[in-house]
Specification:
Distance between the termini: 39 Å
Shape: elongated
Oligomer: single chain
Number of domains: 2
Order of helices and strands: HHHHHHHHEEEEEEEHHEH
Length: 232
Amino acid sequence: MDGLKRQAIETEFFSKQIDNRAAPVLMELVDQRVGYLSDADRVIFSHFLMSLRARHPGAVEKARRDGAVELRRHLDLNPEEYERIRTANDPATLAEVAERFLPVRTANFGLNVLQSVIAHPEVGERLFRARWSVINFTFDHEARPLLTSDRPCLLEGNLISGAFAVYLPISPTKLFLACDSEATEARLRQLTAEVFLDRVNRTVVTTASNFVYGLDDQHLSLVEQVFSRCAA
């Protein structure tokens, strides 16, 4: 039952609440209707982007692991207080009490950290006010396919302060781009389509946790090269 409850928490928090709200906004972006987005749409999609940065498989596992360590450390800060009320039949430490009687809350303690990351007000504000655009990598009826991965939201710079650019492949040929300023966007758009596309695809591969997705196998050599180097 505990496992099912944990799975339900993840499904509700990490998928239904965020992804479903972002889906219609994503469709607007795929249709390159950035200028038609409302403030509410931008809030929803900013939240979605923040969630993608925080909830990839590696981040979820790390949050669980680090959260368990931090919870145990916090509960064991003042053992003498627990000792004063502990009976002979009680667990040896307060941390063991939590693990025995509140297993679901204990197991998911670290997810609260991810929640705070996703709802980070300063990051959300910067993304909301960023310059949004969609780049189409189809020229002269020739598609220039993008890769994506299990960590699809890419970041250059710092979302807390300073310059940044956020990339998200939203279709095989379209890339969502959010930049902190006109200068940052202009610098990126000075790149040729081929150079920019290669840069994005290489970043997709190098930041992936376990999986990279593409329309065909034309980028297979790049994926194998990067993954083999990471495994070495």
